[in-house]
Amino acid sequence: MKSVNILQGFLPLIVFGLLAGSSVASVMVALGAALIITVIIGFSDLRKGMILTWANLVLFCSLLIAVGVLGMTGLLPVMGMLIYAALAAVTFGSILVKIPFTLQYARDMVDRTLWEKPAFIRVNVLMTGVWGGIFVINFILDYLAFAYPHSAGGITPPLTYLVLLAGIIFTIWYPGHIKRKYSFPSGQSGR
Question: What residues does each domain of the chain span?
Answer without folding.
Answer: 3-181
